[in-house]
Specification:
- The protein is an alpha/beta fold.
- It contains 17 helices and 11 strands.
- Helix content is 50%, strand content 15%.
- The protein has a 5-stranded antiparallel β-sheet with strand order 1-4-5-3-6. Strands 9-8-10-11 form a 4-stranded parallel β-sheet, with helices on both faces.
- Helix 16 packs across helix 17.
- It is globular and about 65 Å long.
């Protein structure tokens, strides 16, 4: 059957195939993860983020358009974004959605312009973008799509050519980022994006992609400790600084420009109508960054890590995750009280330590198994505090925590 346009139901199937294919390839993506931190979870975080996007898509009922599907994907990705790679993916899907807004059936022209909008959205979110990453692969792929769509006879031919170009861009990432060349790998985030495109094309060609919805290995297999000592000596900026600004200020671009000279790896993401701005930056002067932020509004979820003293992260295995989940299920609901405290942690020892400090509930999770918004909300349901203090304990979990706060009808304060 010849396909000239992509309607809502077909785009839904394309997304489903793309997500399942990414999940099946996640360990290959994880193995490439050396930048910005070699913690081996880019494939897992992108899979979980895209899986959340798919969950929103599958909730669509009745007649729905291609624009409806892409909008649902963007909402779901923001809800389930995990880690920096998940946040970037959520911004890609947000831009893609804006490119298909109001489109009933997407042509190759519509897809090309949606790819372009997706790339532009990610670059707007990241000040001083690092080339040789998923940003580069997205941009070069989108630029090719814009130049090429008039030559493509149908969406299948178009995507085949786009993916060839995407792989060329991916293969070139080690020439743009020295840490990739030294490790002998391509960029993990860029690989994840290419895998998503390849999965979508497989669906268009009529190939079956196995359903990965019951994949439990998303919780991560055991990995060896990752040593950071050598990399620390080359860091130009020492403090990883993250925080949220609660503000009515809307000129995010000017704020990016103001703090851009203070560091690198700058990520500034608007809250999508929630009056929140999420900021991530590597800097030598976190105090000055915070001072500029205070001029816009109230700050929350402030986290500053000295990366020069970060030596290693211990990655947890499936057995530890299973044990932690079992402990969660066995917890009893706490009686009603004025305040409750929920924290995120992994391991029986740390759980007992937090309990001894007065924490009411511990959600299983950590560096390589970031809990979702849904996991955090389940924890909220098991405490009786009128006010709930939610402590993520990891910068990769902050976005999920604030989403839980916004969705819940309970009063939650994210620390």
């Amino acid at each position: 059957m010849e396909i000239n346009k992509i309607n809502g139901p077909l785009l839904k199937e394309i997304f489903k195939g793309a997500v399942n294919y990414l999940i099946s390839m996640k360990e290959e993506v994880n193995a490439l993860n050396v930048f910005p931190v070699p913690d081996g979870d880019t494939g897992t975080n992108m899979s979980l983020t895209s899986k959340s996007a798919l969950k929103q898509i599958e909730s669509l009922e009745g007649d729905f358009t291609a624009g409806d599907v892409s909008a649902a994907a963007a909402r779901g990705a923001l809800m389930g974004a995990r880690g920096n790679s998940g946040v970037i993916l959520s911004q890609l899907l947000r831009g893609f959605s804006e490119g298909l807004e109001g489109i009933d059936e997407a042509t190759t022209s519509d897809l090309a312009h949606a790819f372009k909008k997706a790339s532009e959205t990610t670059y707007k979110a990241v000040m001083k973008p690092i080339e040789g990453t998923i940003l580069t692969v997205g941009r070069e792929t989108a630029d090719f799509a814009i130049r090429h769509y008039k030559k493509a006879e149908d969406p299948i031919t178009f995507l085949e050519d786009v993916i060839v170009e995407a792989n060329k861009s991916l293969d070139n990432t080690p020439n743009q980022l020295q840490v990739l060349k030294e490790a002998g790998v391509v960029d993990a985030g860029g690989k994840g994006l290419v895998v998503l495109l390849e999965g979508g094309l497989k669906v268009l060609k009529g190939e079956d992609i196995a359903d990965q919805s019951e994949d439990e290995t998303l919780k991560k297999k055991a990995q060896k400790e990752v040593q950071f000592t050598e990399a620390d000596t080359s860091l130009k900026y020492g403090y990883c600084t993250e925080f949220i600004i609660n503000t009515d200020y809307e000129d995010i671009d000017s704020f990016r420009e103001k703090i851009a000279p203070l560091g690198d790896c700058l990520l500034v993401v608007g809250g999508g109508g929630t009056h929140l701005i999420k900021v991530h930056v590597h800097t030598n002067d976190p105090g000055i960054v915070l001072q500029h932020a205070c001029e816009l509004g109230l700050l929350q979820d402030i986290k500053i890590d000295n990366m020069r003293y970060q030596h290693r992260e211990v990655l947890f295995d499936d057995e530890e995750v299973a044990e932690a989940k079992k402990r969660e299920e066995e917890e009893e609901i706490i009686e009603e009280k004025d305040y409750s405290f929920i924290t995120v942690s992994m391991g029986e020892g740390m759980t007992e330590t937090f309990k001894s400090l007065g924490v009411d509930y511990v959600v299983a999770g950590g560096q390589t198994m970031n809990p979702s918004t849904e996991d955090l909300l389940k924890g909220v349901d098991k405490v009786g505090g009128k006010v709930i203090y939610l402590i993520p304990n990891n910068s990769n979990i902050i976005l999920s925590a604030e989403q839980a706060r916004d969705i819940s009808n309970r009063e939650i304060i994210v620390i």
